[in-house]
Structures are given as C-alpha cells and as structure tokens.
Amino acid sequence: MITLDLFAGPGGWSHALAVLGVRDIGLEWDEWACKTRAAQGQLTIRTDVAMYPVRPFIGRTRGFIASPPCQAWSIAGKRLGLVDQPLVHQAVADLAAGHDTREALLTACRDVRSLLAAEPMRYLHALNTVGEPEWVAMEEVPDVLPLWRQYAAILRAWGFSVWTGVLNAADYGVPQTRRRAILLASRVRTAAPPSPTHAQVAEPESLFGPGRARWVSMAEALGWGATDRPVPTVCAGGGPGGGPEPFPSGSRKTLSDARTRGTWSPRNDTDGVPALRRDSSGPAARHGTREIRPPSDAATAFTPDTPRWMWSLRSNNQTNATVRPLSEPAGTLFFGHRANECTWVANATADNMEGEQPAVPEPIRITAREAGILQSFPADYPWQGNKSQVFSQIGNAVPPRLAAHLLAPHLNKPFNPGDFALAA
Question: Which UniProt key words apply to this protein (predicted)?
C-alpha cells in the first residue's frame, strides 16, 4: 500500500512522511523540483498530473495527498483562479459523477492552471471504486477553501469523516505566518485539525498542562541573535552581551566585507533621551557605514525608547512588504519570478528620538538555505537549480513541520518536535 502525493513539489509532504517513517510516490512536473526530490532520495514520477492515468494506483493506495499549484489563486499573482472558480466547481462535480468535462471547461478558463485544483477529484473518484484511499490530506491558499468544502461534501457522501478550515503554520512551530486552506478526511477515524503547539503570545502552565509556546521568530530560526534588542548587522565580534554571532559563519556572503562597517553605540543627549552616536575609531568608521555595538551591560543599558530593528521582506519595488520586528515570524514567503529581488531590509524605529537618526543598514539578501529554514526544511536540504528555481520551489512548498502535524494522526505516529529542529 502506498501514499500518493499529487503536485509533490520539492518534497514538503514527502519529507514529513519520511520523518514519520513512511515513503510516498510523488507526481511532479517541474524539472528542478524533481531533481531536488531525487537528491533527497524521494520516489518521483515526473509527469503532468492532469494527463497521468489513475489505473496504476487503484487497489494499492492507502493515503492520498494533493497540493495543487497555487499561482492561479494566490494574492501574489493575478488571481484568475477566482474568476475561474465556477468552472472548477463544475469540473469537480462532473468528475465526482464520473463525467470528464475538463477539456471543454479548460477552453473557458482564464488561467490554464485553475482547473488543476479539480484534478484530485479525478483520482479520488477512481480510487473510491475500490474503497480507497483510507485518508486524504489537501492544502492550498485560503481562497480555495470553498472548493475544499465542495470536496468535503462529496467525500462525506462516500463515507469519509471530513474537516476543512484555514490553519496558520506559525501555530505549529513554523517560523512563518503562512495561512493555508486544509482538507483532512478519513474512513477510519474522526477527521480533526491537530492541536496548535504555539501561539502569538506564550501561554502559562495550567492545571491542564503546559501552555503553548510563543511563535518561533524569524530571527530565532535563522540564528540571528537576541530578538528584543538591537543586534549587529554582520558577523563582527559576537551578539549582544558577547553571545554567539547573530549571523552564522558563511551565511551572509552576499554582504560586503565586514571591515567596511562602522559602529553605533547608545548615549544620552542633554535632555536624557537616548540617541545614537558614531564611533569615530577604527577603519570601519572612516567608510561611513554603521553597525550596532552592544554595551558591556546589555541587560540594563537599553531602554524602551531605544530604537528597535525590524526586517522587511521586499520583492522588486513592492511597497506593501511585510514588516515585522525580529521577535516575530516571517511573513508568507512569496518567491518565484521575483526571487532575485527578495531582500531583508533592516529598519530602525526612532519614536520620540531627537537629533541625528540612525542610518538604515545595507539590505541583506536572504539565502536559499535560510528561506528553506523559514519553511521548516532542514538547513542541509539538497535544493537543486539556480537561485530563482530554488526560491520558486521553496515558496510553493508545504512546510514539512506543518505537514507532519497534519499526517501523524492518520499514520498513528507520534510527532517528535526534535525531528524538525530549526537549527540554522
């Protein structure tokens, strides 16, 4: 018996299954995603899911996974999938009744990818003739939730228990506030979402056990040092209080040499308001570039008025970029054709500040390795392809940590958080 994974991508679901002790067979068309899967040792059939026959899987499929391409529906694109939604609903209803009207409906679609969201029903209808699969898990962007509800009504008529809803990956330990529409179905157990393990604000222990942990921040996941104080912008003498370097060695190769950076340290103006002054010593200061240098007593020197650094994920000239403090998870990763322009930009808040304002440090380009970590992939995941191809795979992938939370109950396997450690 196999687990069938449609639109398998670079292996988000597959990696989760492997950690849980199960292998799947992935169907994927993208060349570089297939190469990544091969490098990771995942079983893959490179094919167009819409053209591949279901017959080879009938009588041997226990689990069924589908994450149709989201480009037609995502807010990062033109969202023509919403315009095509009535046609997709029609295709699902027809396929559930055994009528294949895809070719005729496709000619009316504004985006040829829209109808791919109906493909799982073609497989599910054929598999249902022999009482398969035992369980189903599907994922897409939140706007696809009405379509998942249509799937749910059909699956319930076939004897499944079904749950649909929108989950936030950050609630399950992923360092990213990625919201996704989820469908979970089972013939042998009551379908329900997994209990969240994290929350925006940490919860205290109660009579019912320990509370949920605080969301995992982007800075924590990437090893960028303290999250509640200004931190150095490059590897230059350790983090606040002499701690570990905020940027692991080798991870900031896209930045210019650290020797060109100056330093900033806090002082009090005559009115007692904390300000920033330039340290005139050393070769770095002569180049006019700056970096936060923590005082010797980092625990007490910073006041609530001290500027805090924030990081913004920008693409090209995007003006509505997500801006978060270091203490919060990253926003949803939108990569793909804009990958080469995605940068983390530091911004200093200077409320109630007077006099000279701190300069914004040089933009920091996030690496593919770091983007994978923000999706909860291992730091050494063997991504294949150039930067744009890798970022496209990462941005479209299912976070493995979220996938493992969703799949563990179906497989009757325990979820071990240590298997998805986010060490950078």
Answer: Methyltransferase, Restriction system, S-adenosyl-L-methionine, Transferase
